[in-house]
Amino acid sequence: MKFGKQPAPVADINEDNLEVHKPKTEAAGIKAVMVALERAVAQAGVTRTAQSLLRLNQQGGFDCPGCAWPESATKRKAAEFCENGAKAVAEENTLRTVGAEFWARHSIAELSGKTEYWLGNQGRLSEPVVIREGDTHYSPISWTEAFELIGEHIRASTPDRSVFYTSGRTANETAFMYQLFARALGTNNLPDCSNMCHESSGSALNPTIGIGKGTVSLEDIHDSELIFVVGQNPGTNHPRMLSALKECKDKGGKVVAVNPLPEAGLFNFKDPQTVSGVVGGGTPLADEYLQIKVGGDLALFQALGHLLLAEEERNPGTVVDRSFIDAQTDGFDAYRDARQELDWAETEKATGLSREQIETVAGMLIRSKATIFCWALGVTQQPHSVDTIKEMVNVLLLQGNFGKPGAGACPVRGHSNVQGDRTMGIWEKPKEWLLEALDKEFAIESPRHHGHDAVETMAAFERDEVDVFVSMGGNFSLACSDTETLEAGMQRIGLTVHVSTKPNRSHVVHGRTSLILPTLGRTDKDDKHAKGVQFLSVEDSMSVVHSTQGRLAPVSEHLLAEPVIVARMAEATFGPDHLVDWRAMAGDYDVVRDHISRVIPGFEDFNARIRTKNGFVLPNPPRDTRSFKTDIGRGRFTVSPLEYLSPPHGHLVLQTIRSHDQYNTTFYGLDDRYRGISGGRRVILVHPEDLAELGFQDRDLVDVVSTFRGHDRQAYKFRLVAYPTAKGCAAAYFPEANALVHKENVARESNTPGFKAMFVRFVPHVAEPEAAEESASLAAATAS
Ligand SMILES: Nc1nc2c(c(=O)[nH]1)N[C@H]1C(S)=C(S)[C@@H](COP(=O)(O)OP(=O)(O)OC[C@H]3O[C@@H](n4cnc5c(=O)[nH]c(N)nc54)[C@H](O)[C@@H]3O)O[C@H]1N2
Ligand SMILES: Nc1nc2c(c(=O)[nH]1)N[C@H]1C(S)=C(S)[C@@H](COP(=O)(O)OP(=O)(O)OC[C@H]3O[C@@H](n4cnc5c(=O)[nH]c(N)nc54)[C@H](O)[C@@H]3O)O[C@H]1N2
Ligand SMILES: [Mo]
């Protein structure tokens, strides 16, 4: 594998079969059920499919590995899943396996040319394998030897030269043990997928409302008068959220969608779990659709704040919740002064919206007595993301939309346990109370200095400051930004360890020595313990903690559960007489939960409460008591200057999105049904007028150049597709476009890559791909 070469595409453009149809205006319905079942049966057969889908999101069953949207505690349906949840389960349940024979047949050189779609489709990893410097192939290794190798490498280095990455499927118990392992070793190098996802939400919410999480329950969504869905594509990424929005609409609530793309799920929803949804006309969802420019949300919420304050001035006491503001918040006067004037010309330029459109939506806000703002990655992955979310908090505070039914802030999380992992202490910037509690419980001395987040990890790779990189799930090489820089760095590390369920790109661009350790997934039965069958727990996007237990026979007898893998890595590192009894935890997850109950607030009596019917809800001061545990003990209004994305002449703003057939870097197929795109993924969606102005035509084959502070990044061979996106704003799929995101293009404060904030231009594709790739890597090598 050569350094500096662009990664193999997810799907090869030379073999694709691109078709473009009109985008859909409704989501789900019977088609969704059929697609899900077909896929599940093809992967796992009828019996396994029935066994798994009937247990999905059910009492005593397993938590859907799809997304972090909560299940209803009171109205759980017999089949509580969606098309994409079923696809995620099918992906894990496959009967195909990847073992010694596979690794003997395919060299790394060959695998590095394979598409990600092909890699993932090979099946479940079935035995541990290793590749050492100079080897051309991975080959089997025993578990004992694998752990010895890890222990040797970690001990031979200093603690801060090891990095422990987590992807958000990791259950609470595993996450707790994993962060304990890092801290007992002496490092806070605990980057996670959240650094690339909702970190901006935490960075904005912690200082303003005193908690880095959302403040609503599922019942609040049902009972709300007005819900904003900002920068989110729930029809694909959180399909069960559509049922909740439907319930809100049925009760008379209104929905405002804010998105540069007219996503199908925002407009009409046919609930596939009701008869009327399958045969009837469905429920219209968004009452107002604001087709905002990428990066224009800060301007929008500043304008909304301005309009609410102006109305309050005209009719005092009708809009602003003055008694709440006086009793519970700080900074209102400065905020009011800053929002006194508004430059409408600039607001219209920043948002691409008209003054009338913004005034209409402000009117809805003024009339609503209970408003919720939901948001996802459309607002978290831009330079000014933290300010945008703080501005959304301002507007919520203004009307007292905290701690009352149907109101609040709702960052909609991605990975099914990404929120729980953070609660368990997976964070490179731990709070002092956590470290103190860990030190007291285990008699260790946790390090106090901060560790690396995801982007800092990439920089540390480049500076040769990492010897060991352990990845608990995930696919770091394709998930993070600046793919070429990242992959070159990753290959310089002494040891990479991937605890995974399926082969992926990170296994191919490995460190000098590399281990792939196959593990049980959510749906697998975990019963190889002296104490019998074990279960785990997760926390959803609304802070509900509940158990999850797989029941399917694992595809191989050589898989180990994640908590066991962590414990054995720790034992191999610290030896058998360590202060922490790793073996006891690995053998009985109740022991882990007992520790958690003494270390993490809100988990008191964990073992008893996790066994109750619907689990339990973690304390949430803004929601529970309308109070804010910030450093000043009050909710905080903030003032941010106006900022938006202004690309240089001849450039568009590029954002990256997920297709309907993918789970982050895992691909179920090549179709994006709701957007009308099928058979190919190397596309850039562009407004027809932008195409004409830039001198291109629909379906032109181009290379894409992104520019960031004078540095260019390139990606080859994309097809331009005329699409009804906001003008000036293009869209491409993640991770094909990650190579275009410069490593320093990040959100301020949260350090989240600017995955929705690239400035790009197109050049007609002429060179052959190989030649183009070689010359680009040469150019990159000479430039650095
Ligand atoms: N099936 C499936 N489910 C998933 C995932 C998956 O890959 N597949 N991934 C999971 C994960 S980890 C996550 S984090 C979530 C992600 O869930 P989403 O945040 O819905 O994911 P994205 O595809 O990134 O979509 C971002 C949306 O924001 C819009 N957008 C882009 N820029 C802007 C902007 O500047 N302003 C506004 N207002 N909107 C903008 C885009 O048009 C798009 O509709 O989904 C989770 N669920
Ligand atoms: N351009 C662009 N890039 C992005 C984003 C974007 O919107 N645009 N979104 C970002 C976001 S929100 C996220 S969350 C990250 C995602 O980053 P990651 O979480 O690192 O990536 P995934 O693709 O979810 O990880 C897939 C791999 O996880 C492993 N896996 C699956 N299930 C399990 C399990 O139960 N246990 C273990 N141990 N392994 C398992 C499989 O081997 C699979 O190959 O990507 C980020 N990158
Ligand atoms: Mo995510």
TrEMBL record:
<dbReference type="InterPro" id="IPR006657">
    <property type="entry name" value="MoPterin_dinucl-bd_dom"/>
</dbReference>
<protein>
    <recommendedName>
        <fullName>Formate dehydrogenase</fullName>
    </recommendedName>
</protein>
<keyword id="KW-0560">Oxidoreductase</keyword>
<keyword id="KW-0411">Iron-sulfur</keyword>
<dbReference type="InterPro" id="IPR041953">
    <property type="entry name" value="YdeP_MopB"/>
</dbReference>
<dbReference type="InterPro" id="IPR037951">
    <property type="entry name" value="MopB_CT_YdeP"/>
</dbReference>
<comment type="similarity">
    <text>Belongs to the prokaryotic molybdopterin-containing oxidoreductase family.</text>
</comment>
<keyword id="KW-0500">Molybdenum</keyword>
<dbReference type="GO" id="GO:0030151">
    <property type="term" value="F:molybdenum ion binding"/>
</dbReference>
<keyword id="KW-0408">Iron</keyword>
<keyword id="KW-0004">4Fe-4S</keyword>
<dbReference type="GO" id="GO:0008863">
    <property type="term" value="F:formate dehydrogenase (NAD+) activity"/>
</dbReference>
<dbReference type="Pfam" id="PF01568">
    <property type="entry name" value="Molydop_binding"/>
</dbReference>
<feature type="domain" description="Molybdopterin dinucleotide-binding">
    <location>
        <begin position="652"/>
        <end position="757"/>
    </location>
</feature>
<dbReference type="InterPro" id="IPR006656">
    <property type="entry name" value="Mopterin_OxRdtase"/>
</dbReference>
<dbReference type="InterPro" id="IPR050123">
    <property type="entry name" value="Prok_molybdopt-oxidoreductase"/>
</dbReference>
<dbReference type="InterPro" id="IPR010046">
    <property type="entry name" value="Mopterin_OxRdtse_a_bac"/>
</dbReference>
<dbReference type="GO" id="GO:0051539">
    <property type="term" value="F:4 iron, 4 sulfur cluster binding"/>
</dbReference>
<feature type="domain" description="Molybdopterin oxidoreductase">
    <location>
        <begin position="124"/>
        <end position="488"/>
    </location>
</feature>
<dbReference type="GO" id="GO:0016020">
    <property type="term" value="C:membrane"/>
</dbReference>
<dbReference type="Pfam" id="PF00384">
    <property type="entry name" value="Molybdopterin"/>
</dbReference>
<keyword id="KW-0479">Metal-binding</keyword>
<dbReference type="GO" id="GO:0043546">
    <property type="term" value="F:molybdopterin cofactor binding"/>
</dbReference>
<dbReference type="InterPro" id="IPR009010">
    <property type="entry name" value="Asp_de-COase-like_dom_sf"/>
</dbReference>
